[in-house]
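Note to self: the last two entries modelled the partners one at a time, which told us nothing about the interface. This time every component goes in together.
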Amino acid sequence: MRGGKFLTSVVAPVIALAISFLIASVVLRLVDIDPLTAYQEMWTFGTTTESLISMVNRAVPLFVSALAVGIGFKMGLFNIGVEGAYLLAALVAAYIGALYSIPAVLHVLSILLIAMVVGAAWNGIAGWLKVKRGVHEVISTIMLNFIAFSLSAYLFLNYFQEDTGGLIVATALIPETGWLPSFNPVLGWFGIEPRVGSELHGFLLIAIVLGVLYHYLVNRSRFGYDLRASGINAPAARASGVNPKRMIMTTMLISGGIAGLVGMSTLLGFSHRYVQDFPTGLGFTGIAVALLGRNNPVGMAFGALLFGFLDRSSLILDLKDVPREIVTIFQGVVVLAVVIVYEVISRLVQRQTVAAAAKATVEETEAVAS
Amino acid sequence: MMTMAQRLSEFPRRNLYILLALGGVLTLTVAALVVGTDFLTSPATAGAALVLAVPILLAGLGGLYSERAGVVNIGLEGMMIAGTWFAAWGSWQFGPWYGVLLGAAGGAAFGLLHALATVTFNVDHIVSGVAINILGLGAMRFLSSITYNSETGGSVVQSPPVEGIGEFSVPFLAGGEFFGRQTSDILGWLDEQNWFFISDLAGILGGFLGDVNWLILLGLALVPFTAWLLWRTAWGLRLRSCGEDPWAAESLGVSVLRMKYFAVVISGALAGLGGAFLVLVQAGIYREGMTAGRGFIGLGTLIFGNWLPAGVLGGAFVFGFGDSLRFSGPDVVRAFILAIAIALIIVAIYSVTRQSTRRAIISGSIGAGVLVFYMLVDDVPGQLLTATPYLITLLVLAAASQRLRMPAADGARYVKGEAH
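The predicted structure of the combined assembly is written out below.
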């Protein structure tokens, strides 16, 4: 039903956003802050060129992370382990990538490949545990996250760390052949000249490619068909010849491979080395973005941009004596609201469909009788 | 003639647990003897393990109520986070016992939210749980920013130091006061005698009974209470029936929705209590991220405890012990590793007697590997030690998952009146 799809994919997020704004406003009111002024400040600050660039830079890793989560969700597989996978992958890729220098494109590609392999291997453990030992992936990936934190801290501090003269704790700098160029020249074509120091990371292009690939893989390929079939009705998929174990393993490996790329935007476009305060939490927020975007690449892109905007624009709130943690509430509420609203709407749509079918049947019967 | 396995299976279940626990202590004693430390079975280690085990136990019991009623609760972590924040705030504003109450209430509030999403709106349980975790973290950070942030010693990520809950020692056995009078410390005396095994056993018991916290007692008492409530009362039978077959329960007049609500709210309250424990017994302060995944580990104990209260208790102790290694010296860690190797080799030998070659080979080779690791490594780095509890969860689940049985309708979508 066409209208039903529109309702669930567009109306549901809009209602969820409205609910979240309402709740955030009530919360701000409770602490004696005028919500409208706060939103206005956020909008004014958040729409400057530099803020928009920062928003996209923040959105790109979240989008990639959401893709990693989303492909699992499509078959009802919950990969909570993106967090650990991307941190470990970024560390190993940064370390190995700094050891050699080859022509630019190859160097970047090889680093991306290393990150994907590490991510896939790490999440593959969870896949293996599920297929061979029947361990639910939610528990195993959560545990693997904590183990990845420990393991990466251990490797980083004992083996991968370079002596930087005590200034920062970091791995060796990746040679320039392994850097991704900034996207600013492209912005220049459109007459946008951001301030010095404000750079659009080049990984944006790769993220867009990943989004397109995700769409084709999920919606246009045999694998995607099996994936969605397994998610909607596993016994039926199995009966039609889909090997559930192989599906679980493959999906987990793909999800982990994408997860490995989450940290690459920062690594190749900005820090060029793994630093002690390498951004964390992207894997968890990616789950929120995937839920928000309902595993649809366009939806997840919007979700990631929304989160990026909120994170960036909230910076102004500190200066205006508004607790900027209000956006963390907003982000939490919007995720819960969207899943609830989606459920309610799809139930309504289903009820309408059933009612319409029932009515049609009655009419038909009457027509035959008369 | 009966084989060992037959004899074990005819052995009363309860006694089997005691036998296993004694076997564990014996293994630890032997390992400690080889390494030359007595710290592994000392009251200090046992006490530390107990303190570390109780929050996990509370989270696990919380999961038990929820999942026995058929609602998967991965939001335990978020509920626990709420518990830590509200406990600190309650203790800071009104006193420690109010902290306990508010911590439980904060967790229960998030439990209510989870119930609303999963029971009323039929949202996928894991999706709702993940959302609860995100919301819990965000909401508490906001609350900190409007309360603790402006206080001395407080910030957006931590509270000012708060008053904790008092301790007491059990009279006669561990030297506690009895009507204001100091009593004997029998276990402490036994521990000092250095008698093989007996002193070690006394050391562990002494650790459990000396300087006990009221909240520890409450947490431990909840295990038999839960077992009684869920398996010996009509209410408990109704609750469990919702987790096994809500449609059949409905046909017999059980108000399934209401039972599920009860269960999930209790679940949140217990997780919140676990959070309160972290603040009021362990840390004396609220710090963001202090739960460090204990809600998830609680869920892990629930699974490998086979959705039974005693199983959750056992699991919580294994974690508590593994976790306490972070605070011990390298000798203790080595002794623990040796104990694991011995245990695995015992399992291997037992498997040979049961003609289970595969399991014998697997546990034997892992055991041998651990033994080699023990001989080669002098000091295990701290960063790796912090991974111990998580690694244990993973290994135990990998070994035991297939023999576990979760409630039949755990996580199932239930709509009233849709019985089939």
